[in-house]
Amino acid sequence: MTPVLRLLALPALAGLLVLGACAGSGSDAGGDDADTAASASSAPTDDADADTGATEDFAVPTGPDHDKQAALDLEGRSFTATEVTGRDLVPGSAVTAHFGEGMVSLDAGCNSLGGIFVFDGKTLTVPQLRSTRMACSDELMAQDRWITELFESGVDVAQDGDVLTLRGDDVTVVLTAQD
Q: What is the CATH number of the domain that holds 110?
């Protein structure tokens, strides 16, 4: 692993460890949310994996994929949903996304969500989205679930300047940059 990749991997690993601590083995106030906070292994399985940046369960964005992500102009940027079709946002809530160092942090009104994202040039996926385990209203918990499902299943991404459009099977989220 090159020194630059090590430097980029350290903050990502630290973020996953923090989120992992929040999703510890306490009681699950949200019912079946344990599946949405599945633990991720961040340690390479062997020396070959260390050279490619691959982990046991998914690929860390490096090389050509990392270049595609940079082409989206997401690095270090925060976005807030300005329009959602296919779902209703809980009144008074907002959906926000912050991108940095190959990771995305999300807030859908209740829990903090986050993980390493993969972008293939068209679809952005967070294979294992981590979540804190706050107990909120049923409506906010449901909103966290559909946001989690949306990002874990993958969204088609289009960016036009400060506007980011995410399209899933049954929902479209339009976000505007806040920076």
A: 2.40.128.270
Distance CA 31, CA 43 (A): 29
The contacts of residue 126 (CB under 8 Å, 6+ apart) are: 104, 115, 116, 117, 118, 151, 152
**What would the pLDDT profile of 134-144 be if each residue is shown by its tens digit?**
999 999 999 99
Tell me the whole-structure pTM to 2 decimals.
0.62
Question: Residue 88 contacts by C-beta under 8 Å, 6 or more apart in sequence?
Answer: none
Domain region containing 52? 3-177
* Predicted local confidence at residue 71, as pLDDT: 73
Determine the distance from the C-alpha atom of residue 114 to the mean position of all C-alpha atoms in its chain, rounded to a whole number: 4
**125: pLDDT strictly greater than 60:** yes
**Number of domains the chain contains:** 1
Cα–Cα distance measured from residue 92 to residue 159, given in angstroms and rounded to the nearest whole number:
26
